[in-house]
Amino acid sequence: QVQVEESGPGLVKPSETLSLTCNVFGYSMASGFYGAWIRQPLGKGLEWIASVFHDGSAYYNSSLKSRLYISVDYSKRRFTLDLRSVTAADTAMFYCARQYCHRTGCYFDHWGRGILVSVSS
Amino acid sequence: SYVLTQPPSASVAPGQTAKITCEGRAFGLDTVHWYQQKPGQAPVLVIYDDDDRPSGIPERFSGSSSGNTATLTISRVEAGDEADYFCQVWDGDSDHLNVFGTGTRVTVL
Asked: Is A32 left (phi over 0), alpha (psi -120 to 50) or beta?
């Protein structure tokens, strides 16, 4: 059974870089794996941030692309997200998820519990 | 950019049927997926590829898609179905962009 779990700081200062890690359990990432990050400001909707394939191919939300970097280390069974120059507007619950893709689309079939990140001095 | 519009709320009595719509541009071959999110919990996939159910999801949940509207139907609604529901599409024409709908809060009366 695939499981993913987020880790990282719960508090980041404005203008700093937020780094989050998603650990993957119960699945061989080398077999073909898309990992994704999605965030949700409290009381609001879901926003896809970025996705990465096991070969390192990365895809970003165009509205955040200039501040993002996503990478994968399948030997350590994890993928990471860096979000630079954070502001209070980046305060949200961040989820990592496995993204399953095929010819007609992609969806998120396994989600982590989420990690609440606050941006504050 | 791709926008998926859902009604903000829906109310339904126990035992009745809830229908939640998701409107975007014509979906064509793009499939629509649905997630259920209960308060304080992570989203859970309830429908994928327009009308397929993951294992463990009750048959009461079904989906359909036609033209520019996808619909999630919850039959014989139970109190435990009270949650936020989000649709999602992968926009293959736009740099592999994943788009979520605006979300619908379902209240069981």
From this structure: left
